[in-house]
Give the backbone structure.
Amino acid sequence: MRTFLARRAGLALIQLFVVGTIVFLLARLIPGDPARAVLGDNATEDQVAQVRELMNLDAPQWEQYFGFWGNLLRGDLGVSLISGRTVLEDLPVRMGNSLELVLLALALAMAIGIPLGRLAATKANKAIDHIVTGGAILGISLPVFVLGTLLLLVLGVWWPVLPPERFVSFAEDPLTHLRVLLLPVLTLTAASTAVVARMTRSAMLETLSADYVRTARAKGLREKHVVRRHALRAAMLPIVSVSSVELTTLIGSTVLVESIFGWPGMSSLLMNAVTVRDYPVIQAVVLATATIVIVVNLIADITVRALDPRAESV
């Protein structure tokens, strides 16, 4: 396990370095001048030149590149070119808002999807199996922006159970925050629940037909015990793997969900930064997202090895 962790930690550092280099280069390929975006279209060339000098944008690219990594190693993510605040003032709050959506959606998806998949597998080719499978196909097929818009229209306008409200932090008003949180979480949960349910069903069907499960039945063990202690435990390996993939998918889906529901998360922060060519914010958000994805994949690998000791020798 130590060798595995050391190897994965080294790989993670390489991945972060590659991501940081790519985002540094791509951010500077965005059309437009950040200095002009700060001052507006009516600014003179002299004013733009002064601001570019203050922002260090007139320095050579290689000097900006090494300065970027030097600041990053010191824990300095830079100052927003537009707001004038340090990136660390806004990023933790926005990251917390996005992770609140993503983690709640994933927790609900697993809490609902695993029992549904288990039920469908134990009732294979029966009515309940067809219902779960059909619902899963519908959930996977329905795009996030369509489902989010429908939920907002139906539950917010036609049948105003959850009317649109301004975002309020949990500390400011817990009840209002939970009401505002519900629709975006449900939007993200739908597709992930469908994926988890289908994976659970497939994994359970495979393990239920395995030799050791038939042996457990032959020993006279109760069916519930066989399903829970033998089949479901073995099926958890692919479920954990697909859940880690779903977490990264949910992070990507927040771009649309945050836009639809006006949720102030990392995705909306990134989109605004790209629009005004705010290099420090773009770099910080992408690196923070990459770090989350890498850590999630590492945790998933460790969990799989803990569930299956044979993976230690892989």
